[in-house]
Amino acid sequence: MRYSRGAMAFHWLIAALIILNIVGAVATEDMEGPVRGLAMGMHKAAGMTVLVLSVLRLGWRLGHRPPPLPAAIGRMTALAAHGVHALFYLLMFALPISGWLMISAASPRRPFNWFGLFDLPYLPVEGDKALQVVAHDAHELLFYLILALLVLHVAGALRHHFAHGRTFLFRMMPGQRRTGI
Question: Which residues of the chain have pLDDT under 70?
Fold first, then answer.
């Protein structure tokens, strides 16, 4: 069985934004001045978009059960798959929230808007240097965790597809008609 169109849309939109933010975070390390400010503005806006889409995705997920995993994969693999998905949900919330806390606790605050279209709200923690440091460290740790999880997720999907001949990839691919077993 395949995932619903809504689940696929959330999956690929959030995945694209997370990958964009991973690449952007690495790229901004060597940037300075206005270019860095522009890149960080895009990073913040994409992160907040991930947070909003994750809230919507969780709501969607609560009302739309995913297709069952085929019995052929075994109990341990199914547990690992469920664990990876649970960690992804946790990180899709924790990573943007830690970034939001970090920029909200800064003093002076830097611009915080959604792709230049409208201002985004700060959390009421301005000037809390200790919180800013903790949020920064958490954001960095969560970055490495989501990067590792992304690699694990993609490697697992490719392993099932190529090493075991299972067509799991088609369950989440738009426009495909394969069953995904």
Answer: 176-181
